[in-house]
């Protein structure tokens, strides 16, 4: 029997209107919809964004991926997710997998496809790109990311200030994603490096609790628990 | 009189279905549509992508931006473009500006908004992000751009092999955009650096003449005139 097709759909950063027309159309044709969520008691953000484009009879399959640095624990969850998806596409049914932002930029989708290709080497996979969170952040803050021949460096979830320092020294624009509790430490570092007035902070672009802040000093005063879905954009001026 | 609003719409890399629902909706509501084109005798690629979402009575204003490294010549064209747009929004009419890919990533939109803000400081600008060409290239090639805590470096239109070499040495994924006639030189360099089998080439994603090539040796054999709208994605393996 021929396998079903797996469609990996980037739902964008938060605003349902920032989904692509292709993503919405493909989702309308999908009966089986797999959605990632961070913990079993929470809902899926990707599903909340794409909800209005679901067909009435769609079957939602939740896949739990913990926020963990434990590669063994993560591997188990990816293997479990790949089993769940292969149970469906292996029966000849098409399936969609929804993912925040763009499917091939720091998304669980990458590991899911890798696991699936090991189990079902002939599987047809169609990836529908999505708006990245940093494009949405740049749009909200009217912050040019890349100009002329300047380079752009993206660093996710970095605890390593040396890595950030090297990137700042190299010129162009720096995009720091998935900051979470690292925020205050990173803001301190950017201030010491002299770039605080060339940076903007955007959290939860297009979602409840969206925040756009051009004065990073205010972040410290507000002593917030920084969101995982947060971004710093920094111009080096070179 | 109140100014009209300028909407900057990223139309994505080529496939009209990769426009966002927001981009299509905003364009449907726009009477004045400004489109960039590279030379006066050619059509606008951005307009060709977004054409199906135009309203019947829309007025298309073409803005010519030469493919030039001459900053004086470019400045003149940006100033002229800003005058054309300000003539419309200054009369209280809304206007859309269409741009390939994402408006704030290596787009003429950046210079247009900067010139406009000098002329009309109070202007309302709404930027609608778009799918970047590299997200579409990654989707076509099923090439994971960023994983885990790896960094991603984007370098546009680079003639400087030292800059590319430094980026490769730094690890993560390298995205080389707008290659054009630099392609052969850059492919030679990537081969010498030992990364040829970790790279893919994608040109004109979603446009006529689309090409996805995982074996970069074939590019050389085909001795093509490389397209300006071309991308190399390279994993360093670190």
SSE map:
The structure is a homodimer of 238-residue chains.
Chain A: E1 6-10, H1 21-28, E2 32-37, H2 45-50, E3 59-64, H3 71-89, E4 95-99, H4 108-119, E5 125-128, H5 133-141, E6 152-156, H6 161-169, E7 173-177, H7 183-192, E8 199-203, E9 211-213, H8 217-222, E10 230-235
How would you describe this structure to a colleague?
- The structure is a homodimer of 238-residue chains.
- The first copy, chain A, is of the alpha/beta class and 238 residues long.
- Chain A folds into 2 domains: 6-128, Cobalt-precorrin-4 Transmethylase, domain 1 (3-Layer(aba) Sandwich); 133-235, 2-Layer Sandwich (Methyltransferase, Cobalt-precorrin-4 Transmethylase, Domain 2).
- Chain A contains 8 helices and 10 strands.
- Chain A has helices at residues 21-28, 45-50, 71-89, 108-119, 133-141, 161-169, 183-192, 217-222, and strands at residues 6-10, 32-37, 59-64, 95-99, 125-128, 152-156, 173-177, 199-203, 211-213, 230-235.
- In chain A, helix 6 links the parallel strand 6 (152-156) and strand 7.
- In chain A, helix 3 (71-89) crosses helix 4 (108-119).
- The model of chain A has no long low-confidence stretch (mean pLDDT 92).
- Chains A and B meet through helix 1, strand 5, helix 5, strand 6 and helix 6 of A and helix 1, strand 5, helix 5, strand 6 and helix 6 of B.
Quick tags:
5-stranded mixed β-sheet, Cobalt-precorrin-4 Transmethylase, domain 1, elongated, homodimer, Methyltransferase, Cobalt-precorrin-4 Transmethylase, Domain 2, 2 domains, alpha/beta, 238 residues
């Amino acid at each position: 029997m021929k396998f079903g097709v797996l469609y990996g759909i980037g739902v964008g950063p938060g605003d349902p209107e920032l989904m692509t027309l292709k993503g919405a159309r493909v989702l309308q044709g999908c009966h089986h919809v797999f959605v990632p969520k961070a913990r079993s008691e929470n809902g899926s953000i990707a599903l909340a964004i794409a909800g209005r484009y679901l067909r009435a009879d769609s079957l939602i399959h939740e896949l739990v991926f913990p926020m963990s640095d434990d590669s063994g624990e993560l591997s188990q969850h990816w293997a479990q997710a790949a089993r769940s998806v292969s149970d469906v596409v292996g029966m000849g049914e098409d399936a969609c997998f929804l993912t925040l932002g763009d499917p091939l930029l720091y998304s669980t989708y990458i590991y899911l496809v890798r696991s699936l290709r090991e189990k079902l080497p002939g599987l047809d996979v169609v990836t529908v790109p999505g708006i990245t969170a940093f494009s949405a952040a740049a749009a909200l803050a009217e912050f040019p990311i890349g100009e002329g021949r300047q380079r752009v460096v993206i660093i996710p979830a970095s605890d390593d200030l040396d890595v950030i320092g090297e990137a700042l020294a190299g010129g162009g624009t720096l995009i720091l994603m998935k900051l979470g509790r690292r925020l205050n430490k990173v803001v301190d570092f950017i201030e010491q490096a002299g770039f605080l007035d060339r940076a903007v902070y955007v959290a939860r672009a297009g979602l409840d609790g969206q925040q756009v802040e051009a004065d990073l000093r205010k972040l410290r005063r507000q002593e917030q628990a920084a969101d995982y879905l947060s971004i710093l954009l920094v111009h080096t001026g070179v």
